[in-house]
Structures are given as C-alpha cells and as structure tokens.
Amino acid sequence: MQDYQKLVFDYVKSADHHADAPARYPVVVVGAGPVGLTTAIDLAQQGVPTILLDDDNKLSSGSRAICFAKRTLEIFDRLQCCEPMVAKGVSWNVGKVFFQDEAVYSFNLLPEAGHRHPAFINLQQYYVEGFLHERAQQIPGLDIRWQHKVIGLSQPDDCVELSVETPDGVVKLRADYVVAADGVRSPVRGLMGLESQGRVFRDRFLIADVKMKAEFPTERWFWFDPPFHPNQSVLLHRQPDNVWRIDFQLGWDADPVAEKLPERVIPRIKALLGNEVEFELEWVSIYTFSCLRMEKFRHGRVLFAGDAAHCVSPFGARGANSGVQDADNLAWKLKLVLSGNAPEALLDTYAGEREFAADENIVNSTRATDFITPKSAVSRLFRDAVLKLSKEHAFARKLVNSGRLSIPSTYVDSVLNTPDADDFSGAMVPGAPCTDAPVTMQGEAGWLLPHIGGEFNGIYFWDGNPAGSNSISVLRLLCDSNFPVRPVVIVPGGTRHADFNDITVLEDTSGLLAQRFDARADTFYLLRPDQHVCARWRALDIDQVQAAIARATCNS
Length: 556
Fold this sequence. Notes:
- This protein is 27% helix and 28% strand.
- It has helices at 34-45, 70-78, 82-88, 125-136, 187-191, 262-273, 319-338, 345-372, 377-390, 394-397, 469-479, 512-516, 542-552; strands at 23-30, 50-54, 67-69, 90-92, 94-99, 102-108, 120-122, 142-146, 149-154, 160-166, 169-180, 196-211, 220-224, 233-239, 243-249, 280-294, 298-299, 302-304, 310-311, 438-441, 444-447, 457-461, 486-492, 504-508, 524-527, 533-537.
- The strands form 5 sheets. Strands 1, 2, 8, 9, 10, 11, 17 and 18 form an 8-stranded mixed sheet that branches. An 8-stranded mixed sheet has the order 6-5-13-14-15-12-16-19, with helices on both faces. It has a 5-stranded mixed sheet with strand order 24-23-22-25-26.
- The radius of gyration is 25 Å and the shape is globular.
C-alpha cells in the first residue's frame, strides 16, 4: 500500500498564469484536508467544475483525526471511496470506562444488527485523505492545485476574486463561490477579518501514537484517575498497522515543549503498558481543549466548513465527522444554486442547519470536557461519586461523560422540512438522516442507502396490491416533473411484483426498513440529495410532493 506519510504531490503551473484576465470557475475550495476533499469530490461528482487549492503538497502528518463515524462512512459510500477505508480501518462498537484500578461499565454504540457499517472505524487521517485524493483523481472536472496559497480575497457584486501565491508567482482567480475548508487557523477567515469565538479550556493533553503488538481488544478504553497516571485521564484506541493512540491528560501547567520529549513520553507509556512491552513512538503532539465557532458560516459568496467554521474538543470524535457532514449539506445546495434551480437563499439554509449542528457539538464537547477535567473540588467529588455508582447503577452511567461520541444532527427546525400532517413514530422525522437497512434487489442482497442520494428520492412502501398501481403511475409522473424525483419502491420480502424497468424495486427482506421508517402500505418519504428526510405522508399525493420539493429548495 502507498506510504501516505511520504507522498509528495507535484506543483503544476496552471494555464491561468498565462491568461489575459482572471479565469472564472463555479467553485473554488480552499484546503485539501478531509473536509475540502469531500466537498470538492461531491461537487465534481454532481457535474460542478471545481478547483481545489492547498498551500502544501503533502497529506496531514501524524494520525490526527482517527475516529470516523457510521454516518461519515455512509457519505463516503455515496462518494465511492468508503470501501478502502473500511478495509484498512479498525472497526469498533464497544467502549469501556475505568475508574482508578477497576472497570466500572461498558457500552455498545451499535447494539442492534442490520447496519452495513460499524458505529466507528479508527483510521489515521492521512489514510482518509489518501483514499479521498485517489477518488478525486478519478473524477472529471476536479482540478487539485498544490502549493497554491490564497493571499488575497475580495467580493465584487457577482463573484469572489482570489490572489493565489504559487512557486511561479501570484495568479488571480475568480469564482462564483468559495468554500473555505482551510482549517482551524483559516487564512481565508483571517483575510476577511473574521474570527471564531468560544471557550478555551485550561488543560493540556498529550497524544502519543505508539507502534506495538498488544493484547488489548479493539475497543475504546477510557480511564479516570488510573494508578499509572494518578489524578488525570487516559484514552486508548487501536489504529491500523499495530499503532495505538494514547491520550494523556497533563494539566494546564504542563510545559508543552518539554512534554513532547521522548524522555518524558516513554515513562508515561511504560507506566500504562508495563516494562516488558516493546513499542516505538510514531508521532507525538500536545493539544488544548477548545470549543469555538464563527458567528455565521456564510459571508456573501464565501462559505466556511469544517474547522475553519467550528472547532470542538477531540473527545467525542466530533471534529472531522461534523466537517464531512458540512460538505454533505453544502454540495447539493451549491449545485442547485449554480444550475439556476434554486435561489441563493438555499445557501443560507446551509449556514442555519450547520450552525445548529455546530452548537449541538459544542454543547456535548463542553459537557464532556467539564466532566473529564473538573474545575473545582466539588465538581471532582461529584464526578468521582458518579463513577463509583456507575458500576452498579444504570442511572449513574447516564451521567458519566468520557466524550459523547459523534452522531449526525437532525435538522428538526429546518425551513426545508415539510411538517408531518399524518401520525408517525420513530426517528425518521423530517430533518433526520436516512437510516440504512438490508434489502434485496432481483435476488441479490444489499443495502438501502446505495440506492439513494445525490438527487431527490422518493421511497414508496407498496404491499404488492394491484390497487397501489395508481401510485406507481404517480411515481412515474414525479420522474418527469419540473423537479425530478428518483423513486424507489419498497415491497415486503417475498412479495410478487411486476418488473418496473424505469423504477428501482427493493425487497425489505427482514422487515427492518418498514420498522425503522414506521411504514405501512402506501407510506411515502421524500428524501433530500444528502439523504435527509424532508417530508413524509401516509399516502402519495403529487401536489403535496411538489410543494415539499419547492419548500426544500427555497422555491416556494
């Protein structure tokens, strides 16, 4: 396999250097990390010509973000780059919590069967970037330009003008829209005189990537006040290539330079592993907890995503995962606006929905940080009492917070949702990300999500009764409407049905799909291109569907 840590990308002089006037592109994405690559791939895959600029010519160094959640993997599936990630990554669902010298309880993040992906995979960020880059190279219309640093930005009435520094001098570009995915220190944000605000926590943590062969299970282990690192916290995660991530809480007074020295790091690791375990250090870093976000994610024709827009403490794996979900939310909206099928107001809903998601992540990360690093004797007393009680009492386990792990946001108050007019139960409310479930198509086992996304989809639950054929005719009308909806018909397992050459028919072989969607015969769900629910009904009505699409595209 490619050694992504040694990979260096060539700088290529673009034709823009020789142009008489700045060339204009639909979208320029700044920053080729996971969020920038995801955004650029999604846009180009939908046919939007995209330029991706990065001021470096390498992938990220060290493991950095390592926990990629089930929803993120589903997004990567839609972008056709998930398979190598899951094959390389370490899958896990179980976490364990320890207090001092004993395990107090464990939890399973995906306790039910019938899901294609695990709750999380652990995979070094440079692998994720490497697999994304390989996918990017396969897509026409995506131009990645390394060693291109944005040093100037202005917004005339109808575009964004960029000054980009390259080894061959400064080149000027114009873009209909710019996506700033250039990290927590975002040069684009700085050029615009903007900032992120929030809370910086007075504590420091040491990250050590350790290569070793160990007997630890593939689980997330978190210690509070362990005997090998008293009065502090420690997190252990397994990564591919026999690499283990160990996070040691150090306290605010720790010297961030001295603590990175091998003579300080190695004794800490030996205290955890024992002197008999052989290991070698791969990467060491020091970080400080912070929870920050920009007030607004949209500024005219510049949209901010990922760490450039929001930043959270690492426990909970909410940084990279929420950034990928930013890209998932933004790309389809940019596509519709650029094609003239939606007004610019649709981009305001990117900001509104993802600002809401950032606030959710900040609340959860702040609570986790306050529990992990109590700031007073009373807080410490409460935390330790909760941990002791959690060994025997379920109510106390709900109070333990070693990092509430990343889950996708449900945009419950989004203006794009059509409120329910019928009675439903379950999680598939308007604004929710679509759940997956096993299905069969023409006798071949598969999953629902690969059949939807990238455009508006309609899921119609049919029991095979000929009376429902009128609804099949309506589905065909939706295919040919001004705003086409690609239909998927769901039938119970073993149901005899006609072959509809123009409509996908899936068998709900286990009944899980109907259960998770609280569906009965004639139930219809309208899904956005990012696989979020935007409306649902107990019967299919073309006028209601078209009104919901107009609402979901800000055309109403």
